Amino acid sequence: DQQVKQNSPSLSVQEGRISILNCDYTNSMFDYFLWYKKYPAEGPTFLISISSIKDKNEDGRFTVFLNKSAKHLSLHIVPSQPGDSAVYFCAASAGNSGYALNFGKGTSLLVTP
Amino acid sequence: GAVVSQHPSWVICKSGTSVKIECRSLDFQATTMFWYRQFPKQSLMLMATSNEGSKATYEQGVEKDKFLINHASLTLSTLTVTSAHPEDSSFYICSAVARSGLGISTDTQYFGPGTRLTVL
User: What is the distance between the terminal CA atoms of chain B, rounded to a whole angstrom?
Assistant: First the structure.
């Protein structure tokens, strides 16, 4: 059973606009959440993370929001750039990133000029 | 720093043969390495957790006799797919967690570039 869900398989956004990628989880034991960017035939590249003691973490153009009561997190990319086009995976663990990660199925983001 | 390599990057083999995939942490020692598998348009699914010097822990549904994992040193873990069949064709990705005191984050899982396995 999929404990981390990304219900939007794809998203298309114009350059300069905001990209919002969503992720839901079911396991209440998860307390650390990460977003990875992935290109085909490559390994995931870490983008940003958030622990359950926070509800927001920001790093440059990337911001992750966590709503624990709703078991929902989102990744905001502002402004979106064509180079952001990739598949974005949400991942969760019970512990920090050094523990096994549960991944969603990914959302393919296309940023058009 | 914190580079993880995998070899080979892609491999094609005949059904019934065995294939070994190596995962190396190039500039750090890894206490734990993970092996994931990704089928097309699917998520990365954890197969097993590998700790140096001990037996790997396999996730439910993953056959330990088919997917042999050896973590013989702090910088190398190998995954051997024994008697491979077409349904084993997938993208295999490893990750490594740094040992403490190396000056890089020990709370971060660093991923390799993946190995594409195609079984004919």
Answer: 37
Residue with tokens 């993880």: B4
pLDDT 10s digits, B9-45:
999 999 999 999 999 998 888 888 999 999 887 889 9
Q: Are B60 and B73 in contact (CB under 8 A)?
A: no
Nearest chain A alpha carbon to B116: A41
Q: Name the pairing type of β-strands B10-13 and B115-119.
A: parallel
A78-89 pLDDT, tens digit per residue, is 999 999 999 999
Question: What percentage of chain B exceeds 90 in pLDDT?
Answer: 65
Q: What is the DSSP string of B14-52?
A: -TT--EEEEEEESSS-EEEEEEEEE-TTS-EEEEEEEET
Mean pLDDT, residues B52-70: 91
Chain B neighbors of A42, CB-CB under 8 A = 113-114
**Which amino acid does the sequence have at B26?**
L
Q: B interface toward A at CB cutoff 8 Å?
A: 4, 6, 10, 32, 34, 36, 41-46, 49, 91, 93, 95, 97, 106-114, 116
